[in-house]
Structure formats: C-alpha cells, structure tokens
Amino acid sequence: MALMYTGKPRFFFSLKWKLAILFGGVFLILHSIFSYLSYLHAVENFSAQREQVQNSHVNIARTLTKNAFLDLEQFAELLSSINEFSTLTQKPLPTLDENWSQWQLSWGIENVALFDKQGERIKSWGNRLTVETSTIARALRNETPEHQVICPDDCFQQAIVPVIDKSKTIGALSLSRSFADVIIKYRQATHSDIGILVANGADDMARKHRWSYRLSGMTTPEKNGFIFAHVSERYTVAELLASSKTIEIDNAFFELRVIAVNENNLAAPPFFLLIDDVTASTRNLNDILKQVWLYGLISLATSLLLLLFLLHLSLRNITRLSQALPLLSMHRYDQFRKQVAVKKDLAFGYDELHRLNQTALTLTDQLQQLEQKDFNNTSMLLEKTRELAKERDFIRQLIEVAPIIVITQTLKGSIVSINQAGLDGFDAKHGSIIGKKFDIFLPESDNEHLNKLNRLRAGQHAGLLQIDGLLVTEAGKQRDITWLHTCFQSADPTEKAVILTLGVDISERKIFEEKIFRMATYDSLTGLINRRRFQEKFADELASAKRYDYQVALFYLDLDQFKIINDNNGHEAGDALLAQIANVLMEIIRSTDSLCRIGGDEFTLIMPRAELQSVKGVAEKINQTLMSRSFSFADNHYKVS
Q1: Domain co-membership, 484 together with 585
Q2: Is residue 31 part of a domain?
Q3: In terms of Cα–Cα distance, which of 500, 444, 448, 442 is closest to 471?
Q4: Given 137, 159, 191, which residue is the final one in a domain?
Q5: Do residues 34 and 296 touch, judged by C-beta distance below 8 A?
Q6: Which of 72, 391, 551, 613 could lock 175 by a disulfide, CB 3.0 to 4.6 Å apart?
Q7: Number of domain units in the chain
Q8: pLDDT in tens, 556-601
Q9: 534 and 490 in a common domain
Q10: How far apart are CA 553 and CA 616, in angstroms?
C-alpha cells in the first residue's frame, strides 16, 4: 500500500539544519575518533618507553647481582690458589688470617667459611653466617659453584665454591657479601630506588600486614617506606610480579615492579622491589593530551561554522524540489514535471541543484517504463533466490555431515569456515575458531608443512598438496592428520581466492603402525632392542664413529648360570632371570649406551665414544654387580656372572 502525501507537515525542520547537525555529528565523531587515536598513540608510546626503561632497570639489577656473584667466585679462586689449601687438615691458615682484614675491605666480603669434603665447617672468618648443608653437598657433588641469597636480618649473597686440588675435590669455600653494594650501584646507575623483599620471620608474623614479606633493605627509606606501606595495602606480590603498577601519592606518580632475585625460580623470595618516580613523565603526557583535545575542539568549531554558511547558500533552491517529490509517490507525473521545470532566470548560474531538477524530469519519464519491468524482474529474482537457497542448503548439509575435516581459509591463513567434523577434530566451538590462523594449529616442528602451505598461498605451487602431518587441538592434544590443500578461485573475478583444506584423522592408524614397529624392533620379554634393531643401530654407530672420528666399544654378554637355572626351575624362572638381568644392566650403563638382547641368554652392549679404561671399568662393574646379587627361584639361590 502506497503512503500518500496529504498536506503540509505539522512540524517543519529545514534540511539545512538537518545537514548541519548531520555533518556536525560526523565531524564530532571523527574528531572524537582522531583525538582518541591520538590519545591511544601517546599512551602507547609512553607505555613502550616505560617498558623499555623497566626492562633496562631489571637487566641492570640482575647484571649487578650476577657480577657480585662472579666477584665472590673470583675471590674464591684467589684463595684456592694458596698452597695452604692443598690440604684442609692444616691449621691455621696463616695467609688468610694475616690478610683477612685487607681482603675483607678490598672485596667487600662479610664472611668466609672453609668446609672439608664431608661438608663439615673447618674454620670461619668474619661474621658467622648460616650455610645450608644441602647447598654445600650439592656444590661438592657437582663440583660447580652454588649461589644463594640468605636474609637473617640483612640480605647477603653467598657463593659456595668447591676447592679442587689435583683434579679432586678436597673441600668447599663459602663466601658471603652484603646486598647493600648491589642496591647502591643500582641507585647510581638508574637514579631509581630499589629494595629487597624477604619472607617474614617468626618475629614478623604477628604484624598486621597484607604481604607475607618485609623490606630487608631500601634506598631512601624515609620516602619509600610510605610508598611500600601504600602499595602493600592495594596490590599483592603476585600482581606486581605479573606486571608493573603505577600509583599516585600526594600528586606524585610512582611506578613499582617486583622481580625475583633468583632468575631460576621467579616465584620464590627474595624479590627486588623497583620504585621509579614517573611524576614528570606522567604530567608531560597529560599536558600533551590536553593540547590535542583543545586544538581538536577549535578546529571542529571552525569547520562547523564554515559548513553552516555553505549550506545556507547552497540549499535555497532545493525547497521547490522537496515540495514536488510527493507527487511522484502519487504517480502524478505530469503535475510533477510542471512544478519541477527548470526556470530560465538563473541569477547565480546553472549549478548541481538545477541539474538535479533536470535529472528528476528525465527520471520521471523512465520511472513509468521501469515500473512493470521492475515488477517482472523482482518476481524472477525471487524465484532464482529460492532455487539458489535450496542448492546452498543442500551443499551445506553435505559438508556438515561429511566425516572429514573441511576448512576454508584466506590466503593469509585465517579460517573462514569449518564443518562439524572439523570442530570435533579441533576440540573447539565454532565461535572460538573462526578468524584464527590455521597455522597455530600446526606444531612448530612441522616446518615442511608450513613451507609448502605458504608456497600454495603465494601461488608458487599448483594443483593438490597432500601432507601427512599433525594437528594441535585447542586443548593441546596432537592428532595425526592427512591434509589435502588446494587453492580455489571463484568464477567471479571480484571474489578473492581461498584455500580449501580437507583433513582425515589417521591417529589410530599411526598408533597401530607404532605398535607393529615396536614388536619388530624390541624384545617383548626384557623390553630391550632385538637382534634386527641391534644390527641397524650398530651399523649407524660405526658410520657415525667413522665420520666424527671416535671409538665404539661392543660387548658380547653370555650368562654362565642361565642353563642350570632354566633346567632346574623351568622356563618361567629363566624368563624372570633374563628380565632381572636386563634391569640390572640398564642401571649400570650410560644413557647413551644401547643394551640389546640378540637371543636366548645372549646380550650385546654398544658404547659410543668409549675409552679403553672406561670400557674395562664397565666390564668389571658388570661382573661385580652381577656377582654381588643373588637371584632366587623356588627357595634356590643362584649367583650369575
């Protein structure tokens, strides 16, 4: 039903003002967007600069800590070079006693303690500090320096360095140094404040404090003590470990961050508390943002005033056309032509509005001819639309019920569509996977798959691409998939090409193949590799030894008492003996050695990169270990060699 024009409207609102409000609103929105983008850009730049500064400060703190530990190690090496350390039973150590005061001042050492190879303290210089026996034992066992931070009241860096004489560890030196030097050097290097957070002791547990940590040391404590109390009431240590926080106190801004002193255990105390005064930078950023908004508002007001003036001049002649347009809705074409006819007295020349009137007259002539044609075309289009919808729904149903993964992705790898089998394979929901890159669901190790797929996307590979690869689901599981990729170009040149990806889950087939391979290469009784795999591995080791010029040792082992045990106790006892012998031998050999059962009671052992002395030692150890154990079956005890 046509909407008929019945007369003048009750309320008239000029098009000039509508356009002014419209364009003004657009300008306002654009201004807001540009101002907001400028704001975001300024904030991002500020955040990036602050992040660089933070990372620099973190690196300085950790570098100073590492250098302090290296100084302790160097001092330990100096002490170890003294002849008096060749035997730790010699008491006293006159060189260290005589020079202790001078070395303590030069190196900033708080305590030196000497331990024997059993970890027992022999002597101590300076203030006596606790040294964990487990740390000393670990340093002696690994023959490598151990570092730790201890905080009885103040914090100290402690290095435990093994003392080695004639390639043998004869004891250990413990050297301790105050953390104050690191804090002072950090302050000098960064002009920022730093403190050390340590776990509360027994005397501190009664304090009413949100954190279970206390400050063991801090630069400018008269200012930073208040900052510490303020931030500890608002954030947890875990939040400051995750990211830095900015707080405002008395119109001043401070950036705080917590990092672990020990890089190998980022969640365990002690921690560095880094405090940086960013008041000047923050205020400078706020001043810049105020200028951006002020200049934007001035330009917006000027643009709106100019727009209003231009609209006033340009829209005077549109009134006549606006009054005549309702006639078209009533199909009164002749009356419309009379009212819209272009007048000859054009005081300001022939402009776009006059052309609009002329165009309206031309369109009026064509409108009557097109009405019937439009009706026919609309009916035909509706019929075609129904047919296409049916075909589309049918194809979509086929794809949805297909038992294989069907994916379409852009040439950049973004997933456009995926069927139900694909969602099941990816362990994902439709909304969470659309738009993601297909590449993130492939393991990083599958470089060959990614390279070939990128060549297909770039048009450097024609035809079908088939790859047996892996799929990493959203749950982190891996599935073996046979992938088929091809580039699909629509007949419409305006449509962009897409990559059609099909995937068939072959995980069960892979598992079956692996079981078959293990059955073919491993001994089912002992779990060791069998004769066939031994021959392949021995050939590979010989080729590698020839290429890289090293020696390979081959042991042939035959059990002396096996036949007696097998005959007296039956095959079950013999099988149990072989399994026990395999377990014993596996405990003796290195992880790089290969133990094989080649048949019956016969074993072989491949030792790559072997020396004659170590080969003899392994042979003796095997016989000694076997002879030292007793194997029992049916209350009978046997020795095996």
Answers
A1: no
A2: no
A3: 442
A4: 191
A5: yes
A6: 72
A7: 4
A8: 888 777 777 777 777 777 777 787 888 888 888 888 888 888 877 7
A9: no
A10: 10
